[in-house]
Write a structure and sequence with these properties.
This protein is an all-alpha fold. The chain contains ten helices and no strands.
Length: about 170
């Protein structure tokens, strides 16, 4: 792989107005691919794209607020807001994050049933964390009626797709 070549192509696409290409440039900046990591500059780029409505950038902003990276303080309310904006647009990682935040009994937004619905959306879109969390919900009857067959089906699906945690659950 040539990250330098990929960056060159992202920059070309970005110069022609491709916001997803701009998002990938910011990802490279956040992760230190090709050049030194600069999470604060990446956050600024993500925020500009998130404000334009780009779902992956909205998810990235949610992560920054959830983890306190990118030069921002941890703020779970702000994280939830950004994850929800991205989740509504169908961003699978954000759908899983919304589900996770809703299943947290310590959260003011605690809602096991709603959590399951977001896990279902993320799982259907192929998010491994959502698949594992949905399996766990069915296994334990959290937000949904316990259903061992459905739980095993989801565990196998996620395990076959590489979800290590689900592989361990299956033994």
């Amino acid at each position: 792989r040539s990250y330098n070549k990929a960056l060159e192509l992202y920059r070309l696409a970005h110069s022609k107005g491709d916001d997803f290409a701009a998002y990938m440039e910011a990802r490279y900046l956040a992760e230190g691919v090709v050049f030194p990591a600069d999470p604060i500059a990446a956050h600024e780029k993500f925020m500009a794209l998130a404000n334009k409505g780009l779902a992956p950038a909205q998810n990235a902003i949610g992560v920054d607020f959830q983890t306190g990276t990118g030069g921002v303080q941890k703020d779970f309310g702000e994280a939830f807001k950004w994850f929800m904006l991205a989740a509504i647009k169908g961003e699978p990682n954000a759908q899983s994050q919304v589900g996770t935040m809703l299943k947290d009994a310590n959260s003011e937004k605690f809602s096991p049933k709603e959590s399951v619905e977001w896990f279902r959306k993320g799982a259907t879109a192929g998010n491994l964390n959502a698949q594992c969390n949905l399996a766990y919900a069915y296994l334990n009857g959290i937000g949904v009626k316990a259903d061992l067959q459905q739980a095993l089906k989801l565990l196998k699906l996620a395990a076959n797709n590489g979800a290590y945690y689900c592989q361990l659950q299956l033994g």
